TrEMBL record:
InterPro entries: Aquaporin-like, MIP, MIP/Aquaporin, MIP_CS. NCBIfam families: MIP (TIGR00861). This is Glycerol uptake facilitator protein. Belongs to the MIP/aquaporin (TC 1.A.8) family. It comes from the Bacteria. SUPFAM superfamilies: Aquaporin-like. The keyword Membrane applies. One of its GO terms (cellular component) is plasma membrane. PANTHER family: AQUAPORIN OR AQUAGLYCEROPORIN RELATED, AQUAPORIN-9. The chain crosses the membrane at residues 6-25, 37-56, 76-104, 130-151, 163-184, 209-234, 240-259. Its main location: membrane.
Length: 272
């Protein structure tokens, strides 16, 4: 199996289990309907673990464009492989989303709320404020990539590593997931959002593309910033890509302010 197909498969597995737990908890007339946030956070953590178990020995199981960019900055993957990894991750996210739709095929019509259906595929903020939402995704993803790099510093039995990575996802979900639903992964959000847009889901509504930039640009920026912090404090390294990451951080936060003030912005709440 090639590294690219491994990233496709691993991401599809991640989204199948991760989107599946959200569907199980939120969709009406599902046997898991009504469970709580802990179930969702645990499900996503195990979803990542299963994806890592599946393809970790083949591609490194990034399963996340933000992780791929961070690892490229740290020299763990050649930059020439980055575009292929990211494309395959997004395609895997689309397929994973489609599989969740098929798995819960009988539950979509029984669920009336359009936002609940969309939440199975993609994230949305608890309070819509682009600047604050970007900040949440940046911090959450920076912690993710730093955490993965920290874990890599330790000698861990191969069979336990995916569970430790999954535990990191659970920790992020429980502690940092409330503001935006912790996308922390562009492929996990954009791929299933595309699936939501193209699939014939009963009574689905729109795919909330006006918010879609946040769970893409926020994690990309945060992932790179996490790599900058790790490399600066643990390796004493600061290079051109570090500067690029900082510039991207500034641009992202400015964009958050601009989007909040845009004339066509709807539902924005003040944070002051």
């Amino acid at each position: 199996m090639s590294e690219y197909f491994a990233e496709f498969l691993g991401t599809a597995i991640l989204v199948l289990f991760g989107g599946g737990v959200v569907a199980n908890v939120n969709l009406k007339r599902s046997n898991g309907n009504g469970a709580d946030w802990i179930v969702i956070a645990t499900g996503w953590g195990l979803a990542v673990s299963m994806g890592v178990y599946a393809v970790g020995n083949i591609s490194g199981a990034h399963l996340n464009p933000a992780v791929t960019l961070a690892f490229a900055m740290d020299g763990a993957i050649n930059w020439s492989m980055v575009p292929g990894y990211i494309i395959c991750q997004i395609l895997g996210g689309i397929v994973g989303g489609a599989l969740v739709w098929l798995m819960y095929l009988a539950q979509w019509k029984a669920t009336e709320d359009q936002g609940t259906k969309l939440a199975v595929f993609s994230t949305a903020p608890a309070i819509k404020n682009y600047f604050a939402n970007f900040m949440s995704e940046i911090i959450g993803t920076a912690i993710l990539t730093m955490g993965l790099l920290f874990i890599g510093m330790n000698k861990i039995a191969d069979g336990l590593n995916p569970l430790i990575v999954g535990s990191l996802i659970v920790a992020i979900g429980l502690s940092l997931g409330g503001p935006t639903g912790y996308a922390i992964n562009p492929a996990r959000d954009l791929g299933p959002r595309i699936a939501h847009a193209i699939l014939p889901i009963s009574g689905k509504g729109d795919s909330n593309w006006s918010y879609a930039i946040v769970p893409v640009l926020g994690p990309v920026t945060g992932g790179m910033i996490g790599a900058v912090i790790y490399r600066l404090f643990y390796k004493g390294a600061f290079d051109t890509m570090s500067v690029v990451a900082i510039v991207l951080l500034i641009i992202t936060l400015i964009l958050g302010v601009v989007l909040n003030k845009a004339k066509n912005a709807k539902g924005i709440e003040s944070i002051y």
